[in-house]
Design a protein that fits this description.
The longest helix has 15 residues. This protein has a single domain, classed as Jelly Rolls. The protein has an eight-stranded antiparallel sheet with strand order 1-2-5-14-7-8-9-10. It has a seven-stranded antiparallel sheet with strand order 3-4-15-6-11-12-13, with no helix packed on it. It contains four helices and 15 strands. Strand 12 and strand 13 form a beta hairpin. By secondary structure, it is mostly beta strands. This is DUF1080 domain-containing protein. One of its GO terms (molecular function) is hydrolase activity.
Amino acid sequence: MSIKKSPIILLLAFFTLGVNAQNLKLKNQEFELHNVTGEVVKFQGKKVLKIERDLNALPFDSTRVEATVDEPHYARLVGLDDFENGTIEVKMYSQLQNPAPYSGIAGFIGLYFRIQEDDSAFESIYVRPKVGRSDNQLRRNHTVQYFSYPDFKFDTLRKTAPFRYEGSAPVALDEWITMRIEVNGESAEMYVNDMKYSSFIVDKMLGKTKKGFVGLYVDIGTIGYFRDLKVTKRALQVKKPGEKETAI
């Protein structure tokens, strides 16, 4: 038995698929949108990728924050599916949506890496620029966040290993932030702006995935602008035998 569909229904179905399936090109890079809306726009004199979380494609529930944030809402860099070790660097700019869709928005913006083809697993480091220069140290300590999808999202890590996977960084809303992540085996270090030394270290990442795609991340309430993404793959750097840190 065949079912006839009206032209209007077919048109609506095509439009819905197009919103999630479209690819955007910025310079020589192409991005595939996963549960975000996006466009290439001119911002402060430069062409950038602008993305926001698509709450129709992936709803947010304020009564189930842990379950409905840190999900696959990002723009995937097309053509690089085997990033394992190396450097990911990007310039990003975070604005808050107005009106705010949720009282707890903080400008969530950052990077996903080692993303599996089907979005079933990935690693992430992102920032909450709203609290980066807070006059309250406890809030500042929540500026940087690592998580590993799907088993170790932010709230799980905050409860099981407080402050081990969070940290501070001198970032803010409404200004360009250069984020650089150095990934090496089970560890990752984050550098911001022109700082010589890293401001955040993940000693041992928790995901089982070892290689995959790279993506640009925003979450609830963020308007994110991205440009100048650079990804450099590198072989695993092994510490010399006997090399260890000392502490007083």
